[in-house]
Amino acid sequence: MKLSLRWLQRHVDLSGIEPRQILADLTMSTAEIDGITRFGEGLECVVVGHVLRRDKHPGADRLSVCAVEFGDGVPVQIVCGAPNVATGQKVAVVRPGSTLPAVPASPATTARPATPIAATKIRGVESFGMICSEQELGLSADHDGILVLPPDAPAGARLVDVLPIQDHVFEIDNKSINHRPDLWGHRGFARELAAIYGRTLSPAPASVPLPAAGRQVQVHIDDHKGCPRYCGLVLDGVVAGKSPPELRYLLAAVGQRAINLPVDVTNFVMLDLGQPMHAFDLERIGARSVHVRFARGGERMTTLDGVERELAGSDLLICADDEPVALAGIMGGAGTMVGADTKALFLESANFHAATIRRSSMRLGLRSDASARFEKAQDPANAELAVHHFVRLLQRWCPSATVAGPLSDPAGNRVEPKTVALRRARLRGKLGVALDDARVAAILGALEFGVRVTAEGWEVVVPSFRATKDISGEDDLIEEVGRMFRYDNIPEVPLRSAVVPPARDEELFLVRRLLEVAAGDLATSEVYNYSFVPDAVLQAATGHATAAPYLRVQNPTAPDTTRIRRHVLPSLLASARGNLREFATIRLMEHGKGYHGEVRDQHGLPGEVRELGFVFATRQGPHPYPELREAIARLLRRVGCPVELARAWAGSDQPWVHPHRSVAIERGGVEVGYVAHLHPAVAAAMDLPTTTAIACIDVRALLRGGSVATKFEPLPVYPRLPVDVALLVDAATQVGAVAAFLQRIEPQLVRQVQLFEVYRGERLPPGKKSLNFTVTLGAHDRTLQDADEARYLGLVRERVAEIGGELRG
Amino acid sequence: MEDRHQQLRQQWLAAIAAATDAESLAALETRLFGPKGEVVELVRSVTTLPKEQRPAFGKASNQLKGEIEQALQQAMQRQRGLALQRELAAGDFDPTEPGPSQPCGSLHPITIVQHELVDLFTSMGFTWADGPEVESEHFNFDALNIPGDHPARESQDTFWLDDRNLLRTHTSPVQVRTMLRCTKDGFEPPLKVIVPGRCFRAETVDKSHEHTFYQMEGLVVDRGVSTANLIHTMKTCLRVILGRSDLKVRLRPGFFPFVEPGFELDVNCPFCRGDDGDSRGCSVCKHSGWIEILPCGMVHPRVLREGGIDPEEYTAFAFGMGLQRVVMLRYGIDDIRLFMGGDLRFLRQFPEVSR
Questions:
Q1: Residue B66: φ, ψ to 5°
Q2: Residue A227 near residue A380 (C-beta atoms within 8 A)
Q3: CB of A568 within 8 A of CB of A613?
Q4: Which among A29, A433, A601, B251 is most buried, taking Cβ atoms within 10 Å?
């Protein structure tokens, strides 16, 4: 919303205060201001010229050659193309050497770059300057002809001294006044400024006497919730001509296009008081009465923007008898609008239910200045006030206009004033600063709250324009006092509270350790993906398996991205694909949550898993699975959660896992995740190499296993003896079984069994592999000798049949 | 006999003088003093002489042996000294020559900053908490004083799910969740909690807008907590978070249904260092000199009641910080889409752990 400084000054004297200061002070006490622009900036170079003579251009029918003087009686020749230029007129002239300033785009003006004016020849006739139209001056979109000034404008004077043009315009951030219906008009901001600067707010528009009898349009309100109040008034003798400059330039300054006097006055009142109004051509309403009702499904009407709209039962309508003539609070109908020939008006100044207007406006995709105001919950008292304001203004500019009859106001204003108690102790407690009583009373008084001092504090009567939305309780008043005192004036005070160690959420700290260790020790990079998974990614990751139930977003940002992920892996695989175009080898991880709609908690929320997923992939070279397997084992030891990697993973919900090349991550026999080869079909579908290893840890399952306290083991007194053992076994024999065998044949001496190589090659018999171990022997009471090694190898040879193998070498 | 010793002396001293490197000196040492070395053989050859010649020969041989030994040791020491000098004067070292590359991982920049904030706030006695990203209408809206027809429900562009739940639009629902957890068995003040986490708003993604974003909520409930405390706490924290000693903050009105009064907290622009004086600012702060960084406020009594806390006995303040904003300010990142883009060329630029 735009605020004109000139307009604000109609309500409060702001002389001596810089516009930038006003911006700063409004920002600190009231609302966010996006910036200041100037209206009519640069027009100082435009001077009043007196047209002494107008002749036809000898070489062009549509051009005139004018003799114009500027107060010194010296005629200056200017060629002008406007049809309305005439001898004796006072006109706005830019003389050679000056530059007509640029005009910014707005609904009220036509954008144009800055134009330097020079002496020139037009069709062979010399011209020393330019006689301007309002459009050229950036004052309106009107380009029908030149701007004709009042006859008493002194020739040679600056235009800006003759007409009320130049203005400062504040651009308000609308989001910051959504909760303040009173700030959707100039008077509301003027009230704030009066309070900020301790100046006097001009009195509210006074009532005009309305006739006790006469012509009236009957008003029937079907739904008082949708329409708490509807004021209607008939006016005669209206001339729907052009509005006077003082009105048009104020409207133009705030970006409102001028239309005709009655419509311009309704807009002026709306921008002044925040009360939207609508003027109907009375002739088009005729003798019918007005009904405020909800639309019937399938009903249609054409709004004054020329669009035919299909209505729903939740849309509130203004009807003449049964014919819709306006979308209540949003836009008038095309058939009843005020035009140049309008002689009599039916003026509507109503109050509508905020949410009803907002929903209709959103449903229809039709936002107007009126709907923007009504959806903030306007003050029903304002509806009547606005009628009086309108009548007074219309009669000032159109003296022939008369009120034809009494006000129709079937509902009246039934809102009782609200009273709220403000306690001194509460005010002090919440702000953290003690304010003296007089200061508090002055602030509230300046904002037009009624204030009565009580023993505990104040009894505050909330003005109606603040009571519809934002002021309902004591703390709302504390805000009023605080913001006018200015929060910046509150001295800061450190918190004082008991010193207690904060409770620890172990899950969060475990995740943090996992991430930090994985980034460091495992050289893995953390990726964030959306919680939504695109259909194509899911299709590729799960295509060969039955689809699991996914939660879906009803209003997705893209139609193919509706599903909420169950697991982190699919999107992480998609990240891997992109990065493998840049890097030959990648290590990625992602920490995130997955949601399972088939499980619900007591609040009806879906089951949640917290996962840490890994992808190690390489475009060529050995499969990264063994690396990932050891990396995961090391990671989990590092975070105090040692695991067993021995059994095949038996999960079914994650079809991207290779069905036969996976190992479960287990703690005490409980599965907490897997390390695996990527399913080859998924690799193909996702355009990933088969040399892709994946892992996933269910963090909560991992946590349930508890953490293991490391136990110290005394250092060996006697040296250890490493023995290399190479065993030829069937290809299907598991390393774990062989290692267990090597351990159990001499449990007293074997300290560690470590595989250092698996050899599968041509030099071996078919269906065989060679497992090469280093077995570390150690005794607690002596130094081992060569004989001990020989004895151990002897045992291996003797019993190796137990595992169906043979000792090599 | 003397001649022989003299001859050998000259011969050996010449050999020592001729040996200039470590290898030839070592070889010479073996030749002279090894198991069958020439010096050793000379000394040993005394046994072959008639008895009467032995003392003189022995004495002369041993003397010669000592002399040669000393000469050789000196030569070797000199050679070691020269070798050391040569080594120290070596010009073939290239300090820019890298070793074999070490793979390096990285944490997401939002994770890094989140961990730092957690460290800061836990050091001040705050608990680190979390809540669900799929949230109920009740906790996301109703419990936060955002009733059914409140425009905030629409203006927040909520992602609604097909099961009537939603993706949380802010981390604020965890305020009430945490209060309920702390009041279940009787409330023991203070309650100080931070909740960093992922939030969602149905926005079109562009250079400066994301539908998935990170917030950090903070909540302090105690007896006598005031706006003055909020200002102090926020100022202290922001000074650390933004790493600026020139930090200025200003508190101005802001509206959020779950606080009353509500504030917007601005910091002076780190780029133009502007303030509200004559500064015209820069494009980052839109020429205001200030950057909006932290919406905050005194918790609304209705919200405290939802959490089982008596607003007459306790007061509270809350704040919410956009983490992307902080991360972008810190690293000078100008495109918000990079955070969720999963591109290693971006992510690998942050190899550090939290400070």
A1: -60, -40
A2: no
A3: yes
A4: B251
Q: Which residue of B has its CA nearest to A529?
A: B340
pLDDT of residue A216: 95
Mutate to test the interface with A, among B227, B238, B248, B265 (most CBs of A within 10 A): B227
**Cis peptide bond prior to B301, omega within 30° of 0:** no
> Residue for token digits 């308000």?
A172
User: Does B132 contact A522 at a Cβ distance shorter than 8 Å?
Assistant: no
Q: Within its chain, how far is the Cα of A138 from the centroid?
A: 33
pLDDT, average across residues A57-67: 92
* Chain length of chain A: 809
Tokens at residue B68, please? 């040669």
Weakest-pLDDT range from A250-259, A434-443, B273-282: B273-282
Q: How many CA atoms lie within 13 A of A69 on its CB side?
A: 10
How far apart, in Å, do the first and last CA atoms of chain A sit?
90
- Grade residue B276 by pLDDT with cuts at 50, 70 and 90: very low
Are A24 and B125 within 8 A, CB to CB?
no
Chain position carrying tokens 């490493």: A722
- The token pair that represents A309 in the structure block: 């709209």
Angle between helices A506-520 and B109-123 (to 10 degrees): 130
Using alpha carbons, select from A236, A28, A41, A278 the residue that is nearest to residue A137.
A41
Residue A383 tokens read as 């509806």
Of all residues in chain B, the one with the smallest CA distance to A426 is: B312
What is the Cα–Cα distance from A13 to A165, expressed in whole angstroms?
A: 18
**Do residue A603 and residue B139 have CB atoms under 8 angstroms apart?**
yes
Pairing type for strands B166-167 and A721-730 reads unpaired
Nearest to A372 by CA among A350, A354, A351: A354
A579 Rama class: left (phi>0) / alpha (psi -120 to 50) / beta:
alpha
Residues of chain A in contact with residue B228, where contact means CB-CB under 8 angstroms, are 431-433, 490-493
Q: Which residue of B has its CA nearest to A22?
A: B276
H-assigned helices in B215-314: 227-242, 301-306
Q: What is the reported pTM?
A: 0.87
Count H helices, E strands: chain A? Answer: 23, 40
b/e code A589-601 from CB counts within 10 Å (16+ = b)? bbbbbbbbbeeee
Chain B residues within an 8 Å CB radius of A557:
202-205, 211
CB contact under 8 A, A487 and B227: yes
Q: Do the Cβ atoms of B128 and A502 come within 8 Å?
A: yes
Residue in A with minimal Cα distance to B261? A479
Residue in this structure with the two tokens 């003082």, named with its chain if needed: A246
Distance between CA atoms of B157 and B213, rounded to whole angstroms? Answer: 13
Are residues A547 and A574 in contact, defined by beta-carbon separation less than 8 angstroms? no
Q: How many other C-beta atoms lie within 10 A of the C-beta of residue A401?
A: 22
Summarize pLDDT for A312-354 with one digit per residue, the tens. Answer: 999 999 999 999 999 999 999 998 999 999 999 999 999 999 9
